[in-house]
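Private note to self, pasted from the team thread so I don't lose it. Backbone tokens:
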């Protein structure tokens, strides 16, 4: 439980440091649920599923579109993984933004 808390405490500020993402600290869960509406607009995605699919197929990040939970414009990101894998996922999200900004 302490390890999940440590991962969440790393992930949420890291997500908030990415332009177009806003994320609150989850309470009692092991996943973050960031608002990515601005990121979607800036990167040309119409839906959170399009964004999730791009992150999966081009960047190897497995996460769930918020639309699967009735929350379009959000992503569900589990941190039931190693801190290193979580850090790599955040780096790959940043890479998607860089690639889409060209």
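Design output:
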């Amino acid at each position: 439980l302490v390890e999940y808390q440590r991962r969440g405490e790393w992930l949420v500020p890291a997500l908030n440091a990415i332009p177009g993402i806003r994320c609150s600290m989850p309470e009692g869960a092991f996943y973050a649920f960031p608002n990515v509406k601005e990121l979607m607009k800036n990167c040309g995605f119409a839906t959170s599923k399009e964004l999730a699919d791009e992150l999966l197929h081009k960047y190897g990040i497995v996460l769930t579109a918020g639309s699967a939970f009735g929350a379009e414009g959000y992503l569900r990101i589990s941190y039931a993984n190693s801190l290193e894998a979580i850090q790599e996922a955040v780096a790959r999200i940043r890479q998607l933004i860089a690639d889409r900004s060209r």
